[in-house]
Amino acid sequence: MTQNLNKPNSSVARCNRFKLMGFLTLCGAQLCQAAEIKIGVSLSIPPYVIQETNSGIELELLNQALAVKGHTASIQYLPLARTFHELREGKLDGIINIKDGMLDNVFYSNVAITYQNCAISLEDNNFTINNIDDLNNKQVVSFQRASSLLGEEFAKMAKANSGYQEQARQVQQVYMLMKHRADVVVMDKNIFKYYLKQAYLEGKLTEKDLKQQAICHKIFPPTEYKFAFLSEQIRDDFNVGLKQITQDGSLVALQEKYRRLMSFETEAEASTKLTEPKIIKNDSY
Predict the structure, then answer these.
(1) Which of 10, 87, 145, 236 is deepest in the core (most CB within 10 A)?
(2) How do 214-217 and 280-281 pair as beta strands?
(3) Residue 36 pairs with which residues in a beta bridge?
């Protein structure tokens, strides 16, 4: 019996077909794995979110963590209420700075970022501030909506204290403290440091102003935020990426980058007058 050499062996053909199907499945999985993730961001909060340059600690952390699994982030700047609405409508894939229970039908990441609100005063005033009650009878300037965000005890103080006010532009808090128009400002310590340097670079604070030592009274617990995603897989991918950049030193390098951004080291080196101010006591990143 003569074999037809032009007719492919059926077992070989099946094997090749299965290989092709496996290859296409693998390619499809890889395409699904790498995605552009639309993330809703509601506020520019330097140094965490810097809208003008589409940068900041949180945005870079987000990008680095997602990149571990091949994803990219597309940042959508929207009012807070609209980010919630568009996430529910499926027009966004995720949002940042969320706490457990704020939204239903989403997948919460591990803790992504921690803010540290402080009552910040000037050392020369020699204030004793160990708790919220110590803010009574002081000129206190806080960030917008602080009275509804920092707990019942703080809300009670804010209501009873005729010297309490809130500022929408947090840079104003820095001016008011350093120019002795407020006794205490309540804000995140890194936001304070960022705006302190920006105020100096813009000529709104002098070298003499910067020689004043600010003290961070940590009377508030750290505020931990998570990110929320519509997709469980994307949430898992983000968590994997967050763990990796934490373990491989990328997160430490990112924090150091922004520590340098908020520092006066380069300005001190370039000036014969300005020395590197400590900026704020009781501080750790």
Answers:
(1) 87
(2) parallel
(3) 72
